[in-house]
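Hi all, posting the design record for the shared folder.

TITLE: backbone redesign
STEP: 1 of 1
STRUCTURE INPUT:
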């Protein structure tokens, strides 16, 4: 088991992380790496895209994820395959 800081470091190393306390089965997080918007795309405005954390949900969707205070203070993080 790991704390939140250790889970973030695992994400930075390309690993997937999850909490053992999450109710949904098969949920995990991954870091979506840095890339740049296509400068010719009028919707991009030429802005750089920054990395973000995404979650694979229990219903097989992939969404942006934001940590709750409970997630940040939890000690039940683990690396998943």
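Okay, here is what came back for every position:
SEQUENCE:
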């Amino acid at each position: 088991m790991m704390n939140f800081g250790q889970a973030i470091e695992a994400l930075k190393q390309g690993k997937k992380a999850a909490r053992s306390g999450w109710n949904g089965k098969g949920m995990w997080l991954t870091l979506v790496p840095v890339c740049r918007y296509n400068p010719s795309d009028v919707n991009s405005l030429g802005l750089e895209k920054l990395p973000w954390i995404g979650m694979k949900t229990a219903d097989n969707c992939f969404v942006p994820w934001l940590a709750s205070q409970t997630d940040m203070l939890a000690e039940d993080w683990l690396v998943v395959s």
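COMMENT: The helical segments are 4-12, 69-73.
Let me know if anyone wants the other runs.
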